[in-house]
């Protein structure tokens, strides 16, 4: 498996790793009328090109997919859950990438978790607002939880919740 490319959003790279790991033809779709949701847990995001990952893919019911990546030492590195997966880039995936880029511009630190709810595809001209929810210390690391809401003409298109490990 490839190492994360720092110029690419983490979410895009994790989805690419998932597309390589999930058997061809597996498609997961949300329940009718439900928003598309994705949840990325990045426990060890700073890997080297020598890090080999093994993937465990589990379909949960008809509408959920869980993919876990472990390193050689069996430590959990990434976890990805979604209720919508095709194996190819979708407008919802592009919306997630826009939300992640917006968060990265607003908040310093290393992304540790990123959860999204996409009701409609997010155009680049949409309005974004963000807020810092809390800061705290976890295992000796300063952390921050933030939220982002994307709107257009007053309608909420998407939401994101992010957790960052803050720089020292």
Topology:
Layout: H1 10-21, E1 36-42, E2 54-60, E3 64-70, E4 76-82, H2 91-106, E5 110-118, E6 127-138, E7 141-152, E8 155-165
Structure description:
- This protein has 168 residues and is an alpha+beta fold.
- It contains two helices and eight strands, in the order αββββαββββ.
- It has helices at residues 10-21, 91-106, and strands spanning 36-42, 54-60, 64-70, 76-82, 110-118, 127-138, 141-152, 155-165.
- Strands 2-3-4-1-5-8-7-6 form an eight-stranded antiparallel beta sheet, with helices on one face.
- The longest helix is centred in the middle third of the chain and has 16 residues, at 91-106.
Structural class: alpha+beta
Q: Calculate the mean pLDDT score and round it.
A: 86
Query: What is the distance, rounded to the nearest whole angstrom, between the alpha carbons of the first and last residues?
Result: 31 Å
- How large, in whole angstroms, is the Cα Rg? 16 Å
Bulk shape: globular
Would you list the SSEs in sequence order as H and E?
A: HEEEEHEEEE
Uncertain segments: 1-7
List keywords for this structure.
single chain, 168 residues, alpha+beta, 8-stranded antiparallel beta sheet, 2 helices
Task: Give a brief outline of the structure.
The protein is α+β, with helices and mostly antiparallel strands and 168 residues long.
